[in-house]
Design brief:
The protein has helices at residues 6-31, 36-59, 65-89, 99-149, 166-178, 181-197, 203-210, 214-233, 245-265, 269-296, 303-331, 334-355, 357-361, 364-369. By secondary structure, it is mainly alpha-helical. Helix 2 runs antiparallel to helix 3 (65-89), helix 4 packs across helix 10 and helix 6 runs parallel beside helix 11 (303-331).
Length: 374
């Protein structure tokens, strides 16, 4: 570690937060007023530039901490914009019938990167240092730039957004989300699940102090969630014929919460890892269903701005979960925090189901047949 300070390392997350929120909202507005392919292409070029700058900074041997905060914030911001633009593009690349499968594959591949990415990054750092890892990152972004050049233009359908000010465009997007009870329900249930049922901040404590497994055990707990999610996402063909995706989402969140609570009760590492894999699989089913719900109830002209709100929910939930899990663990114990969080997640799913009947009533066949869909 460059500074040897846990505080300065932790403050990197704070430095990333404002650019992440700002670029997600800005990216949503831009994605609804310009060619999304071009937006994604420009964003990838910016990510190449940031990776090159990080590589250059690492080569100096002792870059200023402030520079690292700035580059970290830029990386988080352009990453948020990338997620928004990509989410808005996917539904227009496939037919209505193939959209659930496309979203599942997209989510599954992302989870695979969460399993293999950290390990590969560690190997790269061990072999060629931090600067080598950043150089490979820059090269991978260049490859994505080349791939995007082969994609046709992705102009948003519907009325153009160019005459509207960016601030007004963002406000219109937020207003649309507020007027869509199924959207609000899908966002609320995800936020509840991640806030109460995502004890990732406690994984190192569980592995070391409860299971006596050390760093290897910590890695296993993190990888188990992503591995379960990846396997489930790549085998969700059965969702193609499912219609009541709102009910499936609620059931999946309940399974997630119960599996997390079970992991808190587990007496050793491997049963806990197995239960976390089940939780990851349930989260994957929920994520795919929620993505289909969000995309089908949103007209194409609004998909960028809807995706920006979705991105903020997805990124803020786990951070709130870190705080909740840490506070409860400090007041009680690690096991109590994990178990109570899982059970609170189930209770939260029941509350959301009662508060948002549009989510419970969602029917995919009806949504896909709506004249405004596409």
């Amino acid at each position: 570690m460059l500074t040897g300070s846990a505080l300065l390392t932790g403050l990197l997350g704070a430095a990333e937060l404002v650019p992440l929120v700002a670029m997600a909202l800005l990216g949503g507005a831009l994605a609804d007023r310009m060619d999304r392919r071009r937006l994604l292409l420009l964003d990838q070029i910016a990510l190449v530039a940031v990776a090159v700058a990080l590589c250059a900074a690492a080569l100096t041997g002792g870059p200023p901490v402030l520079l690292l905060y700035v580059l970290g914030g830029l990386l988080a911001g352009f990453g948020a914009l990338q997620n928004v633009a990509r989410s808005a593009i996917v539904p227009n690349l496939v037919s209505r019938e193939d959209m659930p499968a496309a979203l599942a594959i997209n989510f599954g591949l992302y989870q695979l990167t969460m399993v293999f990415g950290p390990g590969l990054g560690g190997l790269l750092i061990a072999a060629s240092g931090v600067e080598g890892a950043y150089a490979v990152d820059a090269i991978s972004c260049v490859a994505l730039v080349a791939a995007l050049r082969g994609l046709g233009p992705q102009l948003p359908e519907g009325p153009g957004e160019a005459p509207v000010r960016i601030r007004r465009s963002i406000a219109d997007g937020l207003a649309f989300v507020r007027r869509s009870p199924a959207l609000l329900g899908s966002f609320a249930i995800d936020l509840s699940a991640m806030t109460f049922g995502m004890p990732r901040a406690l994984f190192p404590v569980l592995a070391v102090s409860v299971y006596g497994a050390g760093a290897a055990g910590t890695g296993l707990l993190f990888a188990a969630v992503s591995a379960g999610a990846a396997v489930a996402a790549l085998t969700t063909g059965w969702l193609d014929s499912a219609r009541r995706l709102g009910l499936i989402t609620i059931a999946a969140v309940c399974v997630w919460g119960l599996a997390i609570a079970g992991a808190g009760f587990a007496g050793s590492l491997w049963p806990a890892a197995a239960l976390l894999a089940v939780a990851g699989a349930a989260d994957s089913v929920s994520a795919v269903c929620r993505s289909v719900i969000n995309q089908t109830v949103t007209p194409d002209a609004m998909r960028g701005r809807m995706s920006s709100v979705f991105s903020l929910v997805v990124t803020s939930g786990p951070r709130l979960g870190d705080v909740e899990a840490g506070v409860v663990a400090s007041l009680t114990s690690v096991r109590t925090s994990v178990v109570s969080g899982g059970l609170a997640c189930v209770a939260g799913a029941a509350v959301v189901a009662a508060a948002f009947p549009a989510l419970v009533a969602y029917d995919k066949r009806h949504a896909l047949s709506e004249p405004g869909y596409r």
